């Protein structure tokens, strides 16, 4: 019988990034970023999961004050949030990790309580979601009826992603990542123009190649 080798611990070239192995930290929402600001314990959390040349993807990180739908998840749209990410990213880079920031907008997976001035969550549809059991198996997430964005409002969301991506790159202080970022933004704009039915948009941005 032919022997199958699983190359988990062999290097992998991912675009401009040379990963030393193929074990990746999946994005995991932690809900420890009080007031949407990453907190100091995240320095330890992410650096403990860093290996030299290993890829980490951050927990989903909001692009704007309308993007939130879960308690205490981080953002990257304000100066304070950007500053709070810096020591976390530094700690990962110190250990030689490659860190991508997952940026998102939850769309209608939200309710009035998460939205600025208690407004309706924004989405591509005005159909509300049914209440769902949260991942902890105890709490029930309630969703408010969303407001369907007008076509001309979509550009604001695209711009929020653009700013968040720039902020992530600022944290990573690396200009090499810009072309990847702009390509991803083009894809996003295309999706939005097609009125993508998904309510949750996720983009990945490298904070800095090692
Ligand atoms: C507690 C928890 C939080 C998660 N948070 C995110 C997230 O922020 N972004 C994301 O894209 N996926 C998130 N996921 C999905 C995981 O990244 C992963 O794709 C999923 O657990 C499937 O992988 P598995 O089959 O190895 O469990 C989360 C999963 C769990 C269990």
State the helix count.
Answer: 4
Structure ligands: flavin mononucleotide
CATH class of one domain reads Alpha Beta
Q: For the record, what is the CATH homologous superfamily label of one domain?
A: Aldolase class I
Coarse morphology: globular
Class from secondary-structure proportions: alpha/beta
Largest sheet: 5 strands, mixed
Distance linking N and C termini: 40 Å
| Unreliable parts | 174-180, 193-200
Task: Based on the model shown, name its key terms.
binds flavin mononucleotide, two-stranded antiparallel sheet, five-stranded mixed β-sheet, alpha/beta, 18% strand, 210 residues, 4 helices
Written account of the structure:
Residues 8-172 form the NADH:flavin oxidoreductase/NADH oxidase N-terminal domain. Keywords: Flavoprotein, FMN, NADP. This protein is 30% helix and 18% strand. By secondary structure, it is an alpha/beta fold. The chain has a domain at 7-111 and 151-174 and 197-207: TIM Barrel (Alpha-Beta Barrel). It is globular and about 55 Å long. Residues 174-180 and 193-200 have low confidence and may be disordered. Flavin mononucleotide binds next to loops.
Q: What is this structure, in a nutshell?
A:
The protein is of the alpha/beta class. The protein has four helices and eleven strands; from the N terminus they run βββαββαβββββααβ. The chain is globular.
How does the SSE layout of this entry go?
Elements: E1 12-14, E2 17-19, E3 24-25, H1 41-48, E4 55-57, E5 61-62, H2 79-94, E6 98-105, E7 122-123, E8 132-133, E9 140-141, E10 147-148, H3 151-172, H4 178-193, E11 201-208
Parallel strand pairs: 3-4, 4-6, 5-6, 7-10
Antiparallel strand pairs: 1-2, 6-11, 8-9
The structure holds flavin mononucleotide.
Flavin mononucleotide binds at residues 26-29, 59-60, 102, 135, 202.
């Amino acid at each position: 019988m032919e022997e199958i080798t699983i190359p988990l611990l062999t290097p992998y070239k991912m675009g401009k990034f040379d990963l030393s192995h193929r074990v990746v930290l999946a994005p995991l929402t932690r809900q420890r970023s009080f007031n949407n600001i990453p907190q100091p314990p995240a320095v330890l959390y992410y650096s403990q999961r860093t290996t030299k040349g290993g890829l980490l993807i951050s927990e989903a990180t909001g692009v704007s004050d309308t993007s939130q739908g879960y308690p205490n998840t981080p953002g990257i749209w304000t100066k304070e949030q950007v500053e709070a990410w810096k020591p976390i990213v530094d700690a990962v880079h110190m250990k030689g990790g490659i860190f991508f920031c997952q940026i998102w907008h939850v769309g209608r997976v939200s309710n009035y309580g998460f939205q600025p001035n208690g407004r309706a969550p924004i989405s591509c549809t005005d159909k509300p979601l049914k209440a769902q059991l949260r991942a902890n198996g105890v709490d029930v997430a309630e969703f408010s009826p969303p407001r369907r964005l007008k076509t001309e409002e979509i550009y604001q969301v695209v711009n929020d992603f653009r700013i968040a991506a720039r902020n992530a790159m600022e944290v990573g202080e690396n200009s090499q990542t810009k072309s990847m970022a702009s390509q991803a933004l083009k894809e996003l704009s295309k999706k939005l123009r097609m009125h993508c039915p998904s309510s949750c948009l996720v983009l990945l941005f490298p904070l800095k190649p090692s």
